[in-house]
Amino acid sequence: MQSLLCSLKHYILISMLLVIFVGSLMANTVDATSICLNSNSPHKAKEILNRLTKTVYVASKPNPINDKQWQSFHPRIPFKKNSTRHLLFGKSCFTRSYSQPQNCKGDQCKKIKKISGYTWLELAKIVGHHCIPKSIRCSMEGGTPDALSAITIKKCQTITFENKIYDLSDSNGNHFIMHATATAKPTMHVDLPKGWHLKIIRLKQALTIHPKNNSSCIYTILRDSKQQSYHQYIYAGTGKSYYYRTGNLFYSSN
Question: By the 8 A CB rule, do 172 and 237 touch?
Fold first, then answer.
């Protein structure tokens, strides 16, 4: 009888641990497996920034601004037009506006706002900014020849790259992947702070990056002096890489 009770207690303990483990796993991956709210990924993003709330909006249905209108567009204060972002990734999955609850469903996950006659999707919120190195001043819009602009944002989106990536890294082991440019033509000829390197890496398979924390949708974004932007996907000292992989992902770099 005592042996049976011990076995029962052991079974209950294991069951409780499995419940805790599975619950934790689901909490950390809910956004990564959610339904994508975007049907496709545009090659160009038209974004505006609310300078008071630090919220970023992107042109969206039902009445998005078109390319011709965008050229002469000047939003009302406190909104500011972001530089046109030519996107380098093949696919993306936008799961929700950052201010919407994690358990939202369908259109409830989108926050659409009408601004200056057009409709915009709440894409991200800037929650921090600094320069690298911190001793040099720079703006959120871009770095300088001596510094990179670094912002922390909330954005509930995964991004998929194929064929090759432009990998920016520091001497500590942090890695960032170029996702957008201002000119549609990435350049390797850019001034970087000491210890930073930019290289091309060939991919064996598609690379999908995701936020550092799926529940709060945290990303770190860098901009260099050529207005090229990068998402961080490997964090030094944490032992964690924020991308999905099976087997050997990379070919070689050059």
Answer: yes
> Comparing 127-131, 141-145, 243-247, which segment has the lowest mean pLDDT?
243-247
Identify whether the C-beta of residue 110 lies closer than 8 Å to the C-beta of residue 100. yes
Domain carrying residue 39: 30-253
Cα 199 to the center of its chain, rounded Å: 20
Place of tokens 């303990």: 13
Question: Under a CB-based contact definition with an 8 Å cutoff, are residues 233 and 89 in contact?
Answer: no
Place of tokens 């959120």: 140
pLDDT at residue number 214:
66
| pLDDT value, residue 242 | 65
Does residue 217 sit within a domain? yes
Question: Domain tally for the chain?
Answer: 1
pTM of the prediction?
0.81
Say which amino acid occupies 100.
Answer: Q
Cα angle for residues 131, 234, 86 (degrees, 5° grid): 65
pLDDT at 250 over 80: no
pLDDT of res. 160 = 95
Q: Of the candidates 131, 122, 112, 133, which has an alpha carbon nearest to the alpha carbon of residue 54?
A: 122
Asked whether the CA dihedral 215, 95, 224, 68 is positive or negative, the reply is: negative
Q: Is residue 24, in this structure, part of any structural domain at all?
A: no
Q: Alpha-carbon distance 177 to 179, whole Å?
A: 6
Q: Is residue 3 part of a domain?
A: no
End-to-end CA distance of the chain: 68
Give domain status of residue 25, yes or no: no
At 37 the pLDDT is 86
Q: What is the pLDDT of residues 211-242, one digit of tens each?
A: 987 678 999 999 999 999 999 999 887 656 66
Residue 13: its H or E element: helix 2-29
